[in-house]
Amino acid sequence: MKTRDTLENYIPLSNPLTLYHCGHEQCKPSHSFGPAIRPHYLIHYILDGQGTFFVNETSYHLKKGDGFLITPGVTTLYCADKNDPWEYCWIGFDGYQVNSILQSCGLSQADPIFTDISNGALKGDLINLIDNFTEGVGNELTYMGQLYLFFSHIHIKTDNSSKIIGEAYVKKAVDYIHHNYTYDIKIADVAKYLSIDRTYLYKLFMVQKNTSPQQYLITYRLKIAQKLLKETDLSVTEIAYSCGFRDTPSFNKHFKKHFNITPLQYRSGKNYFLI
Q1: Average confidence (pLDDT) over 206-210
Q2: Same domain, 171 and 214
Q3: Most buried one in 172, 209, 217, 242, CB count within 10 A?
Q4: DSSP 3-state of 240
Q5: Peptide bond just before 35 cis, omega within 30 deg
Q6: pLDDT tens across 126-159, in order?
Q7: Sorting pLDDT into bands at 50, 70 and 90, what band is 5?
């Protein structure tokens, strides 16, 4: 396979996830690259053979089924074994969701190694992604979807780390609420979006946010309402519906319970110190 030119596929970090380039190589004995830094993230996945990855004054001897992460701006060096040189695939990517994705996979600059335990699913999806990208089959959404699928296989690795998984679930739930609060969403919808049980989501929020997901949703809606009361001339009814409340009385009830003042009193009294 051949790699595709990086520049012609460049997309700014306004995108959640973007594949810049990818490829495949059967290395010659002792073939090395570096020391060098990269402008974006890379993941190498070893299809066969073995070699060594050097980063942060640490060396990792890796073999078939292992992979390693290269972080932007970090000096790395990797070298194929002299007797059993590795064959690997690689993907270069970036985007504003990358940090949370890598965290959910248990990958970071300090912990850049993973081992494939997907029984071949990761390898198959990665090769399919590279084939499609290099042949120009599909579009940016196709590649983004296949990238998410690739990361989903690494995510399995973190099943033994409930803290990392919990943080990832809560962050994703919060993102969902922040983008959907204006609609008539329920916590059951959030749990369904995350493919987890509602009770489990409740426990995660209580541990990490010290509040229930339902209360977090209400509080976030009220904070948006407070901002609209302060900065716009929208009516209380318009604000109520804009913030996801089903009617004005319900909005007034929640607002007074939270702030100990009605929306109209807040607006007329300019009590902008309320939090």
Answers
A1: 92
A2: yes
A3: 217
A4: helix
A5: yes
A6: 999 999 999 998 888 889 999 999 998 887 544 4
A7: very low
pLDDT of 104: 84
Q: Give 205-208's long-range contacts (Cβ < 8 A, gap of 24+).
A: 205/170, 205/173, 207/166, 208/166, 208/167, 208/170
d(C-alpha 181, C-alpha 183), whole Å: 5
Q: Note whether 28 and 144 are same-domain residues.
A: yes
Among the candidates 107, 131, 159, a domain finishes at 159
| Mean pLDDT across 71-84 | 96
Which CATH number belongs to the domain containing residue 194 in this structure? 1.10.10.60
